[in-house]
Structure formats: structure tokens, C-alpha cells
Amino acid sequence: MLLTAAGVAAALPAGAAAAGCSVAYAVSSQWQGGFGADVAITNLGDPLSSWTLTWSFGAGQTVTQAWNTTLTQSGSAVTAKNVSYNGAVATGGSVSFGFNGSWTGSNPVPTSFAVNGVACTGSTAPTTAPTTGPTTGPATPDITVDTATRYQTIDGFGSAVSIWGSAWSTAETQTLVGSGTGQLGLSIVRTGISPVSSEWATQVSALKTAKASGSNVKILASPWTAPAAWKTNNSRINGGKLKTDYYDDYADHLNSYVTYMKNQGVTIDVVSIQNEPDWHPAYDSMDWSGDELRNFVRDQGAKIQNTKLMVAEAVNLNYGYTDPTLNDTTARNNIGYIGGHLYGTEDAGRLKAYPLADQNKKPVWMTEWNFHEAAGDTSTAWGDAGNLAVWDETLDTVMRTVNRSMEAGWSAYIWWYGKRFYSFIGDGSAGTTTGAVLKRGYAFGQYAKYVRPGDQRIALTKSSKASPLEVTAYQGGGKIKIVILNRSNSAVDNAVIQAPQNVTTAEDYLTSRTASAAGQATTVNGGQVTVSIPARSISTVILTP
Questions:
Q1: What CA–CA distance (Å, rounded) separates 510 from 522?
Q2: In the record, which residues are listed under signal peptide (predicted)?
Q3: Does a cis peptide bond (omega within 30 degrees of 0) precede residue 448?
Q4: How many Å apart are CA 488 and CA 113, to the nearest integer?
Q5: DSSP single-letter state for residue 485
Q6: How far apart, in whole angstroms, are the C-alpha atoms of residue 259 and residue 249?
Q7: pLDDT tens-digit profile of 253-307?
């Protein structure tokens, strides 16, 4: 649910500051008796040095927890004030905060808001006629975007549903794939193909919701094992190979899954032949060599229809599991994608372009990674939006590898479970609230929400001032999107972005230890946009010609 109310100033005495505001209030997730909400204030008037937002609940809702604000409630009246680090809001700038609450009966969206006593209804009342100052000449750019030089086409950013457990709820799925306030914009959902067809129904509802609630959402389906009777060890677990005389049965099995899902209204866009063929743990798993994978997709791949095939999702993108398929014309023509997991890939020197895949025009997808060493698995640090250790791991380890994957020319980055205490929305453990967006989710959303399927990565250059920044740029949908990772301990203030053409509007969204997808002020001058990049942050700047 989303409400946007814009502000109009009351009558102002001569010499008073112009005032006005808009407020976006979104219920980001809801469960029985509880909900999470995100609130964004946009200042339409003169700069603010502090702010107080007030509203009333209409159905007895009660705030239970808040972040990025000091929030109090008296009866139905709610008052949210800035904290020490987010009181200043420039003209046109935004600030956001979030809270959790409880409800009974219903949870309607508030209908009116006021900032510093001024009702928010959509415009401002300036006390004097606006004046136009002299237009300044172009500044020396710090980031120069080159739309003429293009790299990979982006297929998306995503995560997996539970492979063996329960599915995401409708509200959780919408939070993960939706593009509204407080939603993360994932464009790929990974699911498992159980060896037991009676288990296929578990994820149907979540996958249908993902397709319906997101934009161009793709579904990747990965099998962990074939049925036990078809394997050399007669077991679902501990590896074991698929017997060669069951290759045709396995192809039929995968094709049946695609057909089943299609009949349920879910298009399976990509089917992997095997999850981690080089890893044989004491849970569902199956062993393949690179030559065996080639033989299977060469001889059986065409039987798996209405989808595209992927090999090989090896643990560390081991080329030995994909080169044989890429080097065989028939096998290569039967696949659409190369997949690999990030575990050990950087240490092995393979977090880089894959020339053989690029040469044969097979996009590379990073289809799984999970890293959570900032705190123990029961530590409530994971539910603390401002926890330093969790934020440092998110920025320096997780988001750094997303940036590097894009620079490597890969087309997709898919995290492990989307709903987990160390992931994008909480699962109710380790201090998290089930369905509530976590800081790592907001950070990942700086890519997922704004860099969309079909966008192309484009070239850029940086000045010495911008050298601490890790930056990638993309073009699509008539816009240029620039994702800026500042892992240094110093802000880069007044950074000038040079576009190849005049810019009409510029948006800047920031996630840091203290902000979650918060709007930031920008200045536009012809083809240049000036932004400030706080220390230890990730931001996305969107330029519209």
C-alpha cells in the first residue's frame, strides 16, 4: 500500500521561509498482528535544519520499533523527529525512516501528514518571486559516462526461495521483487527442482506472485539431484552419478517440471542441469564431470523445451565444468547460459571475464553465494539496522563482489536465500522481524531496483577526486543509472557527473549504516549533475535526459 501526500504551505508572513513537503508512506510488509512501514519525506520548500513529522493512525495501530528517527505515540497521534545525522534536508532533498507496528482488525494508511506544522499536500508558497542567478559554466567532471562504449546486457539481480523449506508469503515476495517504496526490485528468483514431483507445488504461489508483482522477473530452476534410483549410489545425498542409461529419463524429468510449472501459470526461464556438480555433501547432490555435462546437453538438451538451459553452477566457476560444452557446437547450441557460484571464485582468479563464454555469446550468471561471518547465527546484531560489523561486511564483502561481478562482464548476480536473518528480509531469527527489510536488502536493492533487465553496462572514467569510488554505469529505459560504492572513510563531496547529453532530472538514492534507500539532493547544470557521496555508503544516481 502506498500513499503520497504533497505539501502546501499555510499563509506565511512577509519574509518567512517557503515551506512545503510531500510524504510517501508504504507498508513494506504485513503479517498477522504486525507490519513494517517505510516513510520518505521530500522537502519542497526552503532547506530544513530539523524536521518533525506528525500523523494519526485511524485504526488503533501502535508503533513498536523505529529506526532513523525518534518516534513517539500518544493515543492515535504519532510524532517522528529527526535524529542527529538526518535533520538537514535540502530543497528537493529527501529523508527516510522506518518502523514496525502492531494492528488488529485493519491497517489503513494514514491520510494526512504535516512537517514542522505545515500540512503536506503538494506545493509551496514562496514569499518572494523566484530569482534566477547566473548560469555557471561546466565544471571539471569527476565521473564521465561514455554511452558509446557498451559491455554486457544485464539479466538481473536476485536470490533464492527456500530450496527445502516453506515458500515466501505473498507479502514477502512483493517486498523482494516489487519496485515501490520499501521494496527491493529483485528481477531473478532461483528455485529448486525436487527429484520428487509431488513436492513441485510448494513454490508455485511464490513464483506466480513474483512474476505478477515484479517487472520482467526471470525464474531459474536448479536441480540438486535426480531420483535416487537413477544414480550410482542409489541415494539422493552424498553425490553419486546419474547412470548413463537414465540420461533420457532425467531430460524428461526436467522437461516435465517446466511443463508442470507452465500449466500452473509459471514460466521457467532458465533450467540448470545441476547445482554444484563438483560438491558432494550429505544432502541432495549429484556428481558430474565437465565431459558428462557436455554429453548430456549435447544428446538430451533439445528434449527440455520452452526454457533455456544452463551449465554448470560449479562451486567456483571451474572452467573444467563448462569449457567442454562451450567447445562442442551441438552442446553449445543447446544451452543459453553459463552459471557458476562465487564460493572460492575470487581466490581462484576467476572473478573476471570468461573469454570462451563471451566469444560464444553465452551470458555468465553468478547463481549463488552466501557470506555471513559478521556475527553468530543467533546474534541479534543481524536485526540491528545500524550494526557496524554487519554493515562493514555488507559493504566490503557482499556489495564489493557485486561491483566486481559487473566489471567482469557477468550478466546476473543471485544471492542465496532472500529471506534469512543475514539476507534481504528477516526470517524471525537472530533478532530479525519476519518479512521486514534488512540493511543488506536495501544495499543490494541499490543495484536490483534501478539496474533493470535489458540495461547495458556502459563505460566511464574517473578523476583523481573520484578514485576512491567503485563505480559502474548502465543505460536502459531512456535513463542512465550509476551505482557508486564508497568503501573509504572519507566523503566525496560535490562530485560532478558528466553525461553525454543535457540532463532534465537527476535522482540520487543512498544506503549507508544510517540511511536506507534515502533520497539525496542533486544539482543539475546542463549535462552535469553534482552529488555528494558519504563515506562508507552505496548510492545510485539516475539521470533522465
A1: 12
A2: 1-19
A3: no
A4: 37
A5: E
A6: 15
A7: 999 999 999 999 999 999 999 999 999 999 999 999 999 999 999 999 999 999 9
